[in-house]
Amino acid sequence: MNKKRKFCANDRTRKDQLEKSGRKIIMHLDMDAFFASVEQAHDPRLRGKPVIVGGVPGGRGVVSTCSYEARKYGVRSAMPTARAVKLCPEGIFIHTSANKYSHVSLSILSILNEYSPNVEPFSIDEAFLDVTETAERFGGPKQLALQIKNRIREKHNLTASIGIASVRFIAKIASSISKPDGLTIIEPGREKEYLWPMPICNLWGVGPKSEEAFKRIGIKTIGDLARFPKHRLKRYFGIVGETLRDMANGIGEDEIRPFYDEPEVKSMGHEHTFERDISNPDLISGMLLFLSEKVSHRLRQSNFRCKTITIKVRHSDFRLKSREATLVMPTDCAVTIYQCARLLLVKNRFMERPIRLIGVSVSKLEKNAVESQLELMANPHGRQIVVDRVIDSLKSKYGEHMICRARARMVFQ
Ligand SMILES: [Mg+2]
Question: pTM for the whole thing?
Answer without folding.
Answer: 0.62
